[in-house]
Design brief:
The protein is of the alpha+beta class. The protein contains 7 helices and 14 strands. The longest helix has 33 residues. The termini are far apart.
């Protein structure tokens, strides 16, 4: 009897050990979770569209700014002078156009005894050339106005100024990024799952992500799965030959595939900082077995876990579709548009009517 009891105890201990080993294996090898997660964010690199000396700096490091807020101002003096010069040239071109149009119209009304078709054609061509010069002057004024507005460099996104190194007096070069804004509307989490766990990762699955140092998890869902990672053996070596690394045939390291997690809810008091580490766990949906007893559910769960450990977790159909039809929402910045410029009559009022008055009538009116 005592020997039988010892044998039963031994079998019980062995069974418990085997179950614990299987549970541990399932948790660490096949369960859909990973400690290799990172908080990611988009960063807007702001560059001026005109060059000049920075005359005013309106933000500080780590300051929150709204979309459209002025970050810094480039000295506008040169651009104000350029705008004044272009406006003066526009007035000159407008007056020239008015005079030549009236001259052409006057020649068109004269009889064949007072003018010739060649003269009419010459004056009509001069009016067309004056109109083209006036339109070019209008575009120069519009460009000068836009360049003057561009001396105020604005934030394209809502977010935080980061790593601010510029100072008043620095020279800003056109197209050279000199300030970075962390877009607070673009945070997401990249979870790097081992390839042995991808069979239990599905688009839309509920996700919990715990940051190091914070107990409350961030809630989200699987948005997408990366469809390609770098293969080191595909790189060409010396002389263009394949560079194949030696491997151990009895040991294979599982590759890690980035899974993009879209954040749905952030607990109060948990800050999002790009680069923070996160433990990401996929929460599988309920299987609808509410009508079964707890014993049946336990047996089903044990059978599923044993199948995952001994065989491999089966892939769920249509879990990760071969092609993704979902498209990203287009984003765009407001475009600079030129305002409709004034007409020559609005620029130089009263000039054209004076041209139409005959010299004799003008002299009598003056007398």
């Amino acid at each position: 009897m005592k020997a039988c009891f010892k044998g039963l105890a031994t079998l019980t201990i062995a069974f418990i050990a085997i179950v614990m080993a299987l549970v541990t294996w399932d948790y660490y090898v096949t369960a859909p979770w990973t400690r290799d997660g990172r908080v990611r964010v988009q960063v807007a690199s702001v560059a001026p569209q005109v060059s000049g000396q920075i005359a005013e700096l309106r933000v500080g490091d780590n300051q929150y700014v709204h979309k459209g807020d002025v970050l810094y101002v480039i000295d506008p003096f040169d651009f104000e002078v350029a705008l004044s010069v272009d406006k003066a040239q526009e007035r000159q071109r407008a007056a020239d156009l008015q005079v030549k149009e009236e001259q052409s119209e006057r020649r068109q009304r004269l009889s064949d005894l007072a003018t010739t078709p060649e003269q009419q054609q010459t004056f009509a061509g001069a009016a067309i050339q004056a109109k083209a010069a006036f339109e070019a002057a209008q575009q120069q004024v519009a460009q000068a106005e836009i360049n003057l507005r561009r001396t105020q460099v604005r934030s394209p996104v809502n977010g935080y100024v980061t790593n601010l190194l510029m100072r008043v007096g620095d020279f800003a070069h056109e197209g050279g990024a000199n300030i970075s804004i962390i877009d607070t509307d673009s945070y997401w989490i990249d979870a790097y799952f081992e390839e042995t766990k991808l069979a239990r990762v599905c688009m839309g699955d509920r996700v919990e992500a715990k940051l190091m140092g914070y107990a409350q998890p961030i809630l989200g869902h699987v948005a997408s799965v990366t469809r390609g990672i770098v293969v080191s053996d595909a790189a060409a070596g010396a002389q263009g030959l394949p560079n194949v690394d030696p491997v151990f045939t009895w040991v294979r390291l599982a590759q890690r595939v980035p899974v993009r997690i879209r954040i749905d809810q952030i607990p109060r008091g948990v800050p999002l900082v790009s680069g923070l580490s996160a433990t990401v766990t996929i929460k599988e949906a309920a299987d609808g077995s509410n009508g079964h007893s707890w014993l049946d559910r336990v047996i089903t769960a044990v059978e599923t876990r044993l199948s995952d450990v001994l065989i491999s977790p089966p892939a769920r159909p249509e879990c990760i579709p071969a092609t993704t039809t979902e498209q990203a929402i287009p984003e765009s910045l407001p475009r600079d548009t030129a305002k409709s410029g004034p007409t020559p009559e609005q620029i130089n009022p009263g000039l054209a009517p004076g041209i139409n008055v005959s010299p004799r009538r003008g002299a009598n009116h003056a007398g």
